[in-house]
Amino acid sequence: MVTVTPPLLGTVVTIIASAEVNNVPISITEFTVVSCQQTFETVYVTNEFSNNITVIDGQENMPITTLPVQNTPFRVAITQDRSFAYVANLNSGSVSVIRISDNTLVGDPISTGGGSQNLVITPDSAFVYVYNIDASTVSVIEVSENRVVQCISVGKGSRANTYNNIAITPDGQFVYIANTQDSTISVIQTSNNVVIKTISVPNSPLSITSTPNSQFVYVVSPFGTITVIETSNQTIFDTINTPVPNPQNLAITPSGEFLYVIGGSQFVEAFRIADNMRIASIELSRANFSLDIVISPSSDFVYVIANQVFSPFGSINVIDITSNTVIKQVQLGNAPQQLAINTDGSRVYVSNANPDSVEVFQTSNNELIAKIPGGGNGAQGIAVTS
Question: What is the edge-to-edge ordering of all strands in the sheet holding 301-307?
Answer without folding.
Answer: 289-295, 301-307, 314-320, 325-332
